[in-house]
Amino acid sequence: MGKNSVRGEGTPGRVEHAGELGWDESLYGDDASEASGTAAGSSGHSGSDGATEPARSGESKDDSGASKDGPGEGGGHASAAGTGHRRGGRRKRGKRKHRILRWTSITLAVLIIGTAGAGYLYYQHLNNNIRKGDRSAGGSDAKKTAPNAQGQTPLNILLIGSDSRNSDENVKLGGAKADRGGDPHADVQMLLHVSADRKSASVVSIPRDTRVDMPPCKDTEKKKDYPATNAIINEALGRGGAGCVLDTWEKLTGIYIDHWMLVDFAGVVAISDAVGGADVCVKQNIDDHPTKLQPGGSHLHLTAGNHTVKGEQALQWLRTRHAFGSDIGRSEAQHMYMNSVIRNLKDQNAFTDTGRLMDIAETATKSLQVSSELGTVKKLFDLGMELKNIPMDRINMLTMPRLPDPKDPDSHVVPDKAKADALWALLRDDKPLDGKSDGKPAPAPSKGPAAAAPDSLAVSVVNGTGTNGRVAAKGRATEVVSALKAKGFKKADTGSSNPASTSEVDYPQASGAQGKADAESIATALGLPTSAVKASDVKGLTLVVGADWRSGDSYPKQDPKASDPLKDTETVNGADKGACMDVYAPYRF
Description:
single chain, alpha/beta, 8-stranded mixed sheet, 5-stranded mixed sheet, 13 helices, 25 strands
């Protein structure tokens, strides 16, 4: 091969087994290939020093310097040599293109695999960020809602805000350094209910100072068992973690809760920054400062009007209660904040902005602790997508109806049983709190099959009155069996006990419309509402006599005042951009 007289600029040496390695020397420049092709196709022969030998004897050159052969084979030889050169050049160029394409394909494959690998590693990184815990602390006994006609089920998630001071950042944000190392309290508790058809959502808060019956809870980290008790609901977090809070809610409401999510002070600040904060409003200047009567305070300081709060100021807003009158006022302010966050994310198309979602995912996975079943990025992402298409005017947030606690009416509250039970029933039955449908007229009720004769129906009656720490009403199932037999249900009999907050008539899902008609006939005979009829995984017709029916042959009539649990209850609608908080006079400036 030819060499250039300048060091380093000669034709590169060939790589041994280059073809086997997929190595294409032509990628290093065309000069060498062109030089080689020119030498092979010329009439002169190159010497080792790169000089061209003179034409052989019998050859002459025309004025252009091209060789001219004598008569006979010379011209033909020259023509064949030229043709061979052109064919060889085409073959070389074809091979070069093939090699380039092969290397391009390999490079693209490496890039794709590398990108996928990096994506997988980042996905695993996010998953590893997530802290998980047991869904229940052992006291969960609520039943899942049966699927609707389309096979869809509602989604219930318990949102918990912890006042833990067990880190430097949380002590800095929350104060109360002396509380470091103590049991945390669940100062914020909200149930997010997403309807089975994903067309509406409800959020219900229980005030932190609510007195309730708590079930037994097992703390697996402390390896400690806690007995059932009657106490303030924010103490549940210290009796078995978030799982105990979930169990307490299920005992109180009878609603099956799929997951929980827990966040502390530092997590609130980080997430607030990631989502861009929230738009809030106060009607008067506010300064939530410590007083002689009320030490502490959130230190929220705002002038009257609209503000966007984020970071530490967002935490102050969510913690303010004295300046908003009470813990009830704080719940209302929290609902205002949450509605604004969802509204802003929708307005900014954040649910479809990949970069934005990645930023939020990074922060959320570091800031949240979740129940194990929700402990992957995909499931958290899917949860966000569940909310994406719900119209803001179909999102309603409110605080549980309550009454002053007889044991401490100035500081604590208890559930207003009649109204609260009606509220829980709406959520259990997956009824929207705003009373709206999806805009389509309700289909006319179809005439299903008639119920079978009462004396042909086998009914198992279960005593479920032993809930919320109360002993089951003795002989309750036997009493109701007697009442059923008196109404013609001769095959009624007692079954095993199964605690339940509310009474219901269950029928096997497989029995379909006939099973439903039979169950409704039992409910009607005993005065139970048709909403108490449920499709379930029972083997036969089952009447569960719950804690709401501890005596009497007929189901007790409900208080008419409880028919609208939203009346006189603080409710914030997601589409209301004009919501504004009143400030309690001592905290104005």
